[in-house]
Amino acid sequence: MSNLIINNAVANDEWTLVKLPASQIAERKQAGKVVLFKLTGENTVTDEQIAGTVIPATGKIIVPLSVFITRKAEFQARIASNEIGVWIDTHEVLESLIENQADLNVLPIIAVHVERFADGRIFSLGALLRTRYDFKNELRAFGDVLRDQLFFLKRSGFTSYLIRADRSAEDALASLKDFTKPYQGAVDNPNPVFKRYNRAV
């Protein structure tokens, strides 16, 4: 059973996710615990990882942002054929993508990866891509994506969701209907509830 939801239905995934090879850099530790230093866009990908990333010769692929930026020249024909998408981690700086690809809509898909859900950066990234940068195509959430996030991801502009492998996509699908009339305006409907109804005087 697929764990991908697109347009309010469970769907098969036509995209292959390209991952970086494992890093050989030792994890930094603080007070005896592993600490993820991924809050301000710090470069956590090495040149060796980027060069060593294996790119499938055919098919639709979603590549990491660092690979897209560094190896963009080799992707030009496939970009023109709508076969290349980009994925970014929530700790990465969105402006890095904008500076290297002015017209985001040449990308048929942008995916945002949540390594471990701990804050709302994915919602901010979705809203920025839709509003500030006018991205019109498929916007996907993947990684640590759970049922109770989907409704709010949809409100932030996401259109597809790759549910965590140990959870049910069918169950998660129902969450898109958890609320029928949100009060606030958002990406999916900018009008707050009081602007959606005509009140008789």
What is the topological layout?
Blueprint: E1 4-6, E2 9-11, E3 15-17, E4 29-30, E5 33-34, H1 47-52, E6 60-64, H2 65-70, H3 76-80, E7 84-89, H4 94-100, E8 109-114, H5 121-131, E9 138-143, H6 150-155, E10 160-162, H7 169-174
Architecture overview:
The chain is of the alpha/beta class. It has a single domain (4-195), classed as TIM Barrel (Alpha-Beta Barrel). It is built from seven helices and ten strands. Strands 2-1-10-9-8-7-6-3 form an eight-stranded mixed beta sheet. Helix 6 links the parallel strand 9 (138-143) and strand 10.
Q: Tell me the radius of gyration.
A: 18 Å
The biggest beta sheet reads:
8 strands, mixed
- Poorly predicted runs: 29-41
Name the CATH class: Alpha Beta
Strand order of the largest sheet: 2-1-10-9-8-7-6-3
Helices and strands, in order, run as EEEEEHEHHEHEHEHEH
The number of distinct helices, counting runs of at least 4 residues, comes to 7
CATH architecture: Alpha-Beta Barrel
End-to-end distance, in Å? 53 Å
Mean pLDDT, nearest integer? 82
How many structural domains does the protein architecture include? 1
Q: Structural class from helices and strands?
A: alpha/beta
- Write down the CATH topology: TIM Barrel
Overall number of strands:
10
User: What percent of residues adopt helix (DSSP H or I)?
Assistant: 10-25%
How much strand content do the residues show?
15-25%
Q: What is this structure, in a nutshell?
A:
The protein is an alpha/beta fold. 23% of the residues lie in helices and 19% in strands. The radius of gyration is 18 Å and the shape is globular.
